[in-house]
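Please check these two lines:
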Amino acid sequence: MISLKRHRIYLVSIIIAVILIGSLTTYYLLYLSPGTMVVGKDYIKIGFTVALSGTGAPAGTEQLRAYEICADWINAQGGLYLRDYGRRIPIKLVYYDDGSDPAKARSLYEKLIVEDKVDLLWAPWGTFIGLAVVPVLDKYNIPVVLNTHTVSEDTIRKLGTKNIFVTFSDHESVGMFFALFVKKLLSDHPELRRIAIIYAETDMSVGHATWTKKVLEDQRIGEIVFYGSYPVGATDVRGLLLRVKESKPDILIAHTYAGDTLVVFPQIREVGLTPKVLILGGVGSTTSAFYTRFDNRTKEGIITWSNWHPDMHPVLKEFFNRYVGKYGYTPMNVQLGLVFVSCFVFKEAAEKAGSLDYNKIRDVLSRERFNTPFGTIWFENQIIASPWVIFIQYRDGIAQPIYMVSGKYPNAKPVESPILAQYLYPFPGWG
């Protein structure tokens, strides 16, 4: 009897051992073995912070909306196709409001990685916040495609990071874009000569203004009669604007930032500053907040800039229609275009890597070319190789593209395109 009992215990032990070995083998093959398909993930969590309050809120809100349009578009296709999983997997967004605060953003990115355990990261809004989270990206060795950020190769070298890839331009090229547009205006209208430049005291706007001034001077384009700045959080810049008015500029370039545009623009009108050409060079002037704040008559003739238009490609038209259907009409908001570019690059990079492995994705971003509705995109020293800008003008309430330029400083050049309209000149003023 005892022998039979021992025999049964022995058989049960063998069966348990076989089951355990089989389970461990299956786990290894499915989850650990290199080159083997992985299973068991219902969705891919993508984390980021965004400026939904603070000075960046008008632009940050547009960035979030663009991310949501991108997520809807990817999920409409079934998600990201990853070779390691052998199927498409939907994406799920996990995000927090960073309050336009770099320190808060840095802390929240750590939370996304450590506590929320996101699979991949998208970029926050704004250059100063994007640069602030780089130490966290480097700590966990996670690559991110930056979009609403102006970063130079020199800055990347100083940071010593390999984890950011910039789909917008550097300061030098942006400055050249503005200078080339001004050169076009002076060529068309010889009476134009006197140029005033004002800018917000934050990294992006300072860089844009510095290089706009430098290229204008280096190429002897016009005469700069005023160059001055204001704090990015200022609520009253009328003193500065009155000094600008006294300089009697033909062209005013205001390198505003985001929410400050909603302060600077009405005060330009309030002091009666009426140049022949008014260029708002900040991201705030293409936001829905700006569009709805001011009536069509007030916006008429104002020139600003973006990097996209729905007529550029059928997929961009699809994105625009998705946006309008979900949020209502928007001008050609630069935040949308920049995020859309990063979305296409991100999707191709993940699918070419076929994996959620950070090293594989970084390698793809470093060496591959990406086919997007904006054309073929690749990175040189982690910055987009051939950036572009489209200058747009408000006409009868619609933001119309009027001038396009592409390429890196010092080789940027104007681009002819069938989507470009004739610009209104001179600026009609305030009625």
Summary: The chain is about 45% helix and 20% strand. Residues 24-37 have pLDDT under 50 and may be disordered. Residues 44-169+335-381 form a domain with the Rossmann fold fold (CATH 3.40.50.2300). The radius of gyration is 26 Å.
